[in-house]
Amino acid sequence: MFDMRQHVDVPTHRHGGTLDLVMTFADYELQQVSVDPGCILSDHKVVTCQIPVTVGQEEVAERIVRGWRRVDRGVLRRTLQDSPLCHPVPENVTVDELLRSTTAFCVTLLIASYHNTASAVVQGV
Asked: Do the Cβ atoms of 8 and 32 come closer than 8 Å?
């Protein structure tokens, strides 16, 4: 019903019946599921299994953290206004020309321009 699989197929209670379950998604394979006799303190048997787990490496990313509170906002504003990102669209460009210029190549150029401007702004303030 839920695409799940129950891996214990023998009774787990002293008087019969499978009361202790090991459930996984149907496509997940467990290794060595076993039901061993329980101890004196419980009427349940001991269910053990090996679960294959893959542990990946942590992704390490280097960050540069800047003290943005100390940034001169006037210098930041002027630097951005003087950058290519804030240049106005020429008046002689039609809407059709603007739409044609929004190809993947132009988007890539805009992203590069943004990255270069942002880097220059950060270095300059």
From this structure: no
The separation between CA 5 and the C-alpha centre of its own chain, rounded to angstroms, equals 28
What would the pLDDT profile of 6-63 be if each residue is shown by its tens digit?
889 888 888 888 888 889 898 888 888 888 887 677 888 888 888 888 888 888 888 8
Spatial separation of the C-alpha atoms in residues 1 and 86, rounded to whole Å: 58
Nearest to 81 by CA among 115, 110, 109, 121: 121
> For 56, what's the count of Cα atoms within 13 Å in the CB-facing half-sphere?
3
**What is the Cβ-side half-sphere exposure of residue 70, based on CA atoms within 13 angstroms?**
6
Q: What angle do CA 48, 10, 30 make, to 5 degrees?
A: 40
Tokens 């003290």 — which residue? 67
pLDDT at position 107 is 66
- One-letter amino acid identity for 71? V
Of 26, 115, 36, which is closest to residue 107 (Cα–Cα)?
A: 115
Rounded CA separation 7/56 (Å): 26
